[in-house]
Amino acid sequence: MPANTSPIFPLTPNLGVNNVILSTAMTNTKSFDGTDTAGTALALAFTAGANGARVDTIIARLTSTNGATASGTSSALLVRLWLNNGSANTTATNNQLMAGEIAIPATAVTALATGTLPNYNLLANTPYAGGISLPAGYKIYAGTTVAAGGTNIAVLITVQGGDY
Fold it and tell me: Alpha-carbon torsion 122, 126, 128, 130, what sign?
């Protein structure tokens, strides 16, 4: 007998943390367990509400550091995401590396202002296609394994979903 025959839908939009900008690299050991201190290499991107949440998109895009103009060519980047149980992310057992990573090829950012740079969506082609549901208080952290390169180049992380 099914436990729940009625679908549930998010009640309140949750657009994650605004302006998640990553520009430096996590240390080698911490890039596998997500235990780096939050800053320019690792950042909190989303927190589920009191009744849990559904995440529909996780997008990475090249951008510039705050208040600066980006130029040059970025490094080939790898963005990793960790699901955190709501406790300190600096404890490895609180984090789970999410399946799938966002690979961003080296890109010339001279056209940055025109908005022609592509978006890279983790949830589009991974086991999470269709979205994921998070328990109450769970968090998603994002981090880069390589410095962004170029001049004032960074990665913008956007997470969109809704709280139950």
Answer: positive
Tell me how crowded residue 1 is: count the other CB atoms within 10 A of its CB: 3
Amino acid symbol at 5: T
SS3 44: strand
Q: Does the pLDDT of residue 52 top 90, yes or no?
A: yes
pLDDT tens by residue, 56-90: 989 888 888 877 888 888 899 889 999 999 999 99
CB hemisphere CA count around 134 (13 angstroms): 28
In angstroms, the Cα distances linking 105 to 60, 75, 140, 155 are: 12, 7, 23, 12
